[in-house]
Design a protein that fits this description.
Distance between the termini: 56 Å
Oligomer: single chain
Keywords: Transferase
Strand content: 5-15%
Pfam families: Rhodanese (PF00581)
Number of domains: 1
GO molecular function: thiosulfate-cyanide sulfurtransferase activity
Number of strands: 4
CATH superfamily: Rhodanese-like domain
CATH architecture: 3-Layer(aba) Sandwich
Helix content: 40-55%
EC number: 2.8.1.1
Largest sheet: 4 strands, parallel
Structural class: alpha/beta
Number of helices: 6
CATH class: Alpha Beta
Shape: globular
Enzyme class: transferase
């Protein structure tokens, strides 16, 4: 019985984390931000980025962002992405701590790429 309760607790926790992730990731307003020249900031490692990434994205890994944030313009709008969405949330918070006002979590880069492609396709239809 104790194991069942623990399993239920884990399932509920994972579900809550997923719902928070979906709430915090960017879907609404994406097209507007991209039209306004938002920079997609990929915070995965260089190796992950080299394998595949969103065209035009800037790569600064989460592990180096505390040192390299000075390479970014605090007046620009950034959409952070990574492989699953956890590192992008951390990067968003770090940049906001450093005074960046226009930072949004885009979640998983592959999800964001699908949304971008869908917006482009909708525009062409």
């Amino acid at each position: 019985m104790k194991n069942v309760l623990i399993l239920c607790g884990i399932i509920v926790t994972v579900y809550v984390i997923y719902r928070v992730y979906r709430y915090q990731t960017l879907e609404d307003g994406l097209e507007l931000l991209i039209k306004k020249d938002a920079v997609i900031l990929d915070v995965r490692t260089e190796k992950e980025y080299a394998m595949e990434h969103i065209k035009g994205a800037v790569n600064i890994s989460l592990g180096t962002i505390r040192e390299r944030y000075t390479e970014l313009d605090p007046d620009k709008t950034y959409i952070t992405v990574c492989s699953h969405g956890l590192r992008s949330v951390k990067a968003e918070h770090i940049l906001k701590e450093k005074g960046f006002k226009h930072v949004h979590n885009g979640g998983a880069w592959s999800d964001l790429q699908v949304l971008i492609e869908k917006k482009i396709q909708d525009r062409n239809d």
